[in-house]
Structures are given as structure tokens and as C-alpha cells.
Amino acid sequence: MSAKTVIVTGSSSGIGRDIARAFAARGDNVVLNGRDAGKLAAVAAELGAPERVAQVVGDIGSTATGSELVQTAVERFGRVDVLVNNAGIFGAKAFVDVTEAELDSYLDGNLKGTYRTTQAVVRQLLSQGDGGSVVNIGTVLINHALASLPASAALVSKGGVHALTTSLAAELAVHGIRVNAVAPGIIRTPLFGDGDETGSGRLALLNRIGEVSETTSAVLYLADAEFITGHILPVDGGYISGRAA
Prior knowledge:
The chain is an alpha/beta fold and 245 residues long. Helix content is 43%, strand content 15%.
């Protein structure tokens, strides 16, 4: 297989970092993205193969960042094949206490950022004329919320990402561009921090929390699966299907 060029937003830590690692490990060209230049440079150094790794520092909430990601990919590697929309923010706060500024930050960072970055990439894919793949990162909490985790602002924005996935899958199929999403459950990332691993694990049938490598496997699968589009794949250990006890 020839190397693909993959853009991974939010790849300076957690899920995005591992996704970038996996694409680079199999020989693909990877364009990293994050807001912290130091962290991004450290990830690039870890990946090795500097001839196959590029970096774009910037917030995907800015339209300019999406354009720069595409420009960098084309200048360094000649094309774009895959976009992984991983960058985003998440937090819990009671519905009545969410400020307008906080709501805007979720909508800008999660939904609008994903929308604009995808626009920039899809324009490039259309100009190339040979299809491509977009994989969005959502959350299973859209389908099965937790009373103990009030996160309406974050979930409204991520719900929009799920809707964007199915809508674009229908619109872009005629061009051979596939659009899918991975919906993680509770995953061991810096965001999870010192959370109750045992208690959280009991929320899923497999009775544990997930690892970033398991989310990565799902992303790689959807990026390559030529006959799948419009699919939102839960990676949740059975969280939305049942409980361990």
C-alpha cells in the first residue's frame, strides 16, 4: 500500500496523539495539530521520521487553521487522503450555570472547528478527484447520558458532530468521500485524570475503561474501510448496550 497523507487535529496528547502515532508507524505521512507548540514538537520527535511528519500550531476554532493544515499537507506531501477530527474540549457543568461564553467555546471548538476544518479538507479532496476519508471523534454520551455528569454544553456540540457525520456521508458519497465517526466511551486519557477507574469501568459490559489504543484501532479501521460511510462506531466496552452489574 502506498503511503497516505493524514491530518490529525488535537494530536498533542491523549487520543489524538496515539492516532498520529499509529498512522506514522504504518508509514503514512502525518500532519500534527495542536495549540501548544512545545507539546506538538515533542510528539513529532517521538514519531521520528521527520520527512513524514509536519506540524501546524493553531486552534481549529479559527478558520485559518484548517486552511493551513491543508496547505501544509499539500506543500509537504502533495495531497490529503484522510482527516481525523479529534481536537475538542469537554467539561461538566450544571445546565443552569453555563454562561454564554462557555457555550460559545464548546460550539466554536467542537462543532464549528470540526465543520470548518472539514470544509477545507473536502475542498482539497474534491480538487484531487479520487475520494478520501473523514473520521470524526464524537462520544457515546450523545446516546446515553449520565445523570452524574452534567455536560449539556459539551454534548450539544458533540451531537452536532454526529449529525455532521451522517449528513456529509450522504452529500459526499457521490464523490467517493467517506465520512464516519468514532464515539468513545470512558477512555484512559489525561482528561480522565484521577477518576474512579473501578466505578467507571462498571458502567460498561466489559467492566473496565478503555485505552487510547482501542480508540485508535477503530479510527484506522474506518479510515481504510472502503464500503463504510455514515457510521458512528461506539468504542465503549458495551456502555450503551448494558451494565456489568
